[in-house]
Write a structure and sequence with these properties.
Elements: H1 2-16, E1 19-21, H2 23-33, H3 35-55, E2 61-67, E3 72-82, H4 86-151, H5 157-192, E4 200-202, H6 216-226, H7 228-249, E5 254-264, E6 267-270, E7 285-288, E8 291-293, E9 297-301, H8 309-357, H9 362-374, H10 380-414
Parallel strand pairs: 1-4
Antiparallel strand pairs: 2-3, 3-5, 5-8, 5-9, 6-7
Helix pairs in contact: 2-4, 3-4, 4-5, 4-7, 4-10, 6-8, 7-8, 8-10, 9-10
Length: 428
């Protein structure tokens, strides 16, 4: 019985232990469950249907019709031999397949970018809550020590009350940070398409190594080569041009071969003659010959007048092409703005972190304050105020790391490198 209970306790402790989740694990979950990626993958089937329809011009059509009394089958065969629209349709089918892959790549790049941002915000919120929890725990210990000093008559009641107020504020700030972490985790769950375990604990280090050279011209050229949304707009523009060509060339004559064959199988029917010398006459059946015709002819189809339908199609196609040219131009202009915004933040936060890292560490500050307190050079309240300064320094460092990582994700996305995720090391 003891062994069973021991196993149960061990199993319970294992289930309550935190489950470590890295950025790569989150990306893998999003790849399998994200709703945007699942919708983008369905577009492959829709594209396959469009490609089959566009390539149908290469294949013959065969229609059949049956008429009874007498039973006759009509079979119509038709094959286009030459059409001005054949090659534009084949080119459009290849573009459609390419667009399906680019569209999925763009959706994947966007999801990776969003997951990186959500992971960074959630990891930052978790570490902020941890900082405030440690600060609140220190306030509890300090308040207990201050109460003992007050009971011994070494400090005034106002000092104890001041420390108690700081402790209460620390608890409120910790609760607010935990709420922020919960909200950030919910946003991450929504992107992943699946809820993370209740005991999940994000692990990983923030990016600290950033590119030493951030040349705007080089970065913009790199983005123009790699951005999937830019490639998609360029491909759609080519599709619009091909569609205009198809509509225009449909006005040219089409040459093909066709047959309208009549196939009448052998039939059976009653005879019309009787033997007068017989006492009775039974109906007799005779076989009637069938008839088969297989004429094949060359035909030409040319639409001479369509009441303005083709002209209306041309105007609509040209308007669509113009709108895509405007969208393409706007996207090219916005790329440099995205890169500039990310580079500005990276440069600024990198300098902020350099200055913060040059400051005295919290451990050294606490050790020095403890020596000064024992020597009587500082008061108990001074040590409490020192913790406020240390917390502020730690929060500034954490906020700067978060902004730097968000900017790095934005830069990768702006450059079309959304799929090249950084490999983060697991934390303790």
């Amino acid at each position: 019985m003891v062994s069973i209970h021991g196993n149960q306790a061990s199993s319970s402790n294992a289930s309550e232990s935190p489950q470590k989740v890295s950025l790569q694990q989150c990306l893998q979950t999003a790849l399998e469950h994200n709703s945007e990626l699942r919708a983008a993958s369905v577009q492959f089937l829709a594209t396959e249907g469009r490609v089959i329809k566009l390539r149908a011009i290469l294949y013959p059509t065969l229609n059949a019709q049956a008429i009874s009394t007498p039973l006759t089958f009509y079979v119509q065969f038709q094959q286009t031999v030459y059409s001005h629209a054949t090659f534009p349709q084949l080119k459009l089918s290849r573009l459609s397949q390419n667009q399906a892959f680019i569209n999925y790549s763009q959706a994947l790049s966007d999801v990776v970018f969003q997951v990186r941002q959500a992971f960074t915000n959630t990891l930052g919120a978790m570490r902020r809550a941890k900082l405030l929890q440690e600060y609140a725990d220190r306030q509890v210990v300090t308040l207990s020590s201050a109460q003992q000093l007050f009971d011994a008559g070494k400090i005034e009641k106002s000092v104890v009350l001041s420390i108690q107020v700081k402790g209460n504020l620390a608890t409120q700030r910790r609760d607010a940070a935990e709420l922020e972490y919960t909200q950030a985790k919910l946003a991450l769950d929504n992107l992943l398409g699946q809820e993370l375990p209740k005991n999940a604990r994000l692990v990983g280090d923030f990016i600290k190594d950033t590119p030493s050279k951030l040349d705007m011209d080089e970065l913009t050229d790199d983005a123009l080569r790699n951005r999937p949304d830019l490639k998609l707009l360029e491909s759609l523009q080519l599709s619009s041009e091909q569609q205009i060509e198809i509509h225009q060339k449909n006005a040219y004559p089409v040459v093909g071969i066709s047959s309208n064959s009549a196939l009448q199988p052998p039939a059976f029917g009653p005879t019309g003659s009787f033997d007068l010398e017989r006492n009775y006459n039974e109906p007799s059946i005779q076989r009637q010959e069938g008839n088969t015709q297989l004429p094949v002819s060359l035909y030409t189809s040319w639409q001479i007048f369509d009441g303005g339908n083709l002209e209306g199609i041309k105007i609509s196609d040209r308007a669509q092409l113009a709108s895509r040219e405007v969208a393409l131009d706007q996207l090219k202009r916005s790329i440099s703005g995205e890169i500039a915004a990310a580079v500005t933040v990276i440069t600024s936060e990198r300098e902020t972190l350099r200055m913060l890292d040059a400051q005295v560490s919290p451990e050294e500050l606490r050790h020095s304050a403890e020596l000064d307190y024992e020597a009587g050079r500082v008061r108990q309240l001074d040590k409490v105020n020192l913790e406020d300064g240390i917390l502020q320094q730690q929060q500034l460092h954490l906020d700067s790391e978060i902004r730097l990582n968000l900017a790095m994700a934005a830069l990768d996305h702006a450059l079309g490198r959304g799929l090249e995720t950084p490999q983060t090391t697991s934390g303790p």
